[in-house]
Amino acid sequence: MELTPFVLTLMAGLSTGLGGILAVWMRPTPRMLAVSMGFAGGIMLTVSLADLAPQAIAYYAAYLPPFQCGAAVVLILLAGIGAAAFLSRALPDEAALAARCSGDASRAAVLRAALATGAALVLHNLPEGVLTLFAGSADPEMGLRTALAVAMHNIPEGLALAAPLVYATGKRGKSAAAALASGLAEPLGAVAAWLLLRGVLTPGLVNGTVVLVAGVMLWVSLAQLLPQALKAGTAGAAGAAAGCLAMLLGIAALP
After folding, report:
1. 52 contacts 192 by C-beta, under 8 angstroms
2. 55-96: per-residue pLDDT in tens?
3. Which of 79, 147, 91, 155 is nearest to 119 (CA)?
4. Most buried of 97, 194, 204, 206, CB within 10 angstroms?
5. Burial class (CB in 10 A: 0-12, 13-18, 19+), 3
């Protein structure tokens, strides 16, 4: 494995930490929480439906008729949604988390949603790192463009994870570190795939994994983040709109 593609993948992953640092500067208020939860939900909803799913449809369309192509993508999305709903039961319940939030049930609910967000972002970053690394190995110029574009939309992802953690726990340093750790899934996943799966990692498998993760992100957005955000009314809705627009800008920059 050449060093340059790995360095690009590492830099793209580390940019998530920049979003975490931005969250540390925010004042943890209920309004900030609503905006940040809406922002995170808007990001996940947009990246799933406007980026990951269309890319997979374009890939499978070369091999399948239109209806079968759409049905395949929808079924994989549903599998991701079902897996996320099932795995959410493995997260600590709100009563168990309340002890970490000074007995505050509302902050415990936010912490649980933040944990679900972090898990979804890690799952999202794993195949994204693989794509960045392989793009850089195949074409250094395309790899650079891909890494820069990924870095652009990793910054708001880090912000979306760290801001609810700051509100729920009050631990700014650990919240920023959590955002950074979620981004490091990109280079770690890329190296693991290169070492262990290089012989079987086909474009079809990568695209299927990406769509599965999109389903996970849809569930986290619609079942966890947006309901919490919209409890605050216009502040949460504004955050969701901002997340959608920020992610659309990142998608537009992709090569």
Report:
1. no
2. 889 989 999 999 999 999 999 999 989 988 887 777 777 667
3. 91
4. 97
5. exposed
